[in-house]
Predict the 3D structure of the following.
Amino acid sequence: MAKKIVITASLTGVLATRAQCPYIPYTPEEIASEGKRAVDAGASILHIHARQDSGMPAYDIDTYRRIGEEVRKLVPNAIINYSTGAVGISNEERIHHVTALKPEMAALNMSSMNYAIYSPKTKEFYHDFVFQNPFKDIQFFLQKMKEAGTIPEMEVFDNGHINNASPLIDMGLLQKPYVFSFVMGVLGGIPISTQNLLHQAASVPAGSHWQVIGIGRKQWQLIAAAITIDGNVRAGLEDNFYLPSGEMAKSNGELIDAAAKMVRMLGREVATIEETREMLNLKPVNQKVLSNI
């Protein structure tokens, strides 16, 4: 029986604004509503950044708590995955919502890198910064995730980042299931191509659970390629605003629906939340878990 494909929805990032896409959710209620649309369309995992009501990034525990509460009202069994990526704040602030709220998953950036967006039109860089993640910081985040019972979703932006997991596995800080996300298309990281995806997929430890995250409109070619080699996929307004037709999506639900249709078009099935939980050894949500959110 062919492996079923897990779909993750990236509901809202921290860089894009409504000036670029008017459908990006900001408030906890808006994020939860988008989560419901995504789950209804086929997503099992909701990757969540917190934002202030103004759209600016939020890193405080209370905002994440409010988001979790609203999400659980609408999609009680969805798998919640909180971001820990940030620049300009302390390591404690990057992880304190995970320590306090104990989400089932949390993103873990696996290396330092240049991170930028370049405009060929204006010949200028913007959002030009160094995203610092030395091993000592990764160890700190992993220890906190281990204490919280949270699965680290290892975000790798280049091939060498995958191998950074090796010493952490040897130290016992990373344990199965190993979960990797291949982030492709960020300037400073690995470019989008099928050849690069194949190299990434061949580089993870045997038995790893992996998904592809394509940034921008070329996302759809990566999603198609990943499906054919048993990879899981992510879509959503954090990563790309546009449907395969080129039309701007009006919700995360539309993007997840397009991904699910692509899965089925290629002869595969979309994994349910329950099936995804089984793959990741995650128990169903219960009232004790809900009390932490």
In short: The CA atoms of residues 124 and 246 lie 25 Å apart. The radius of gyration is 18 Å. The first strand starts at residue 7 and ends at 10. The chain has a mean pLDDT of 95.
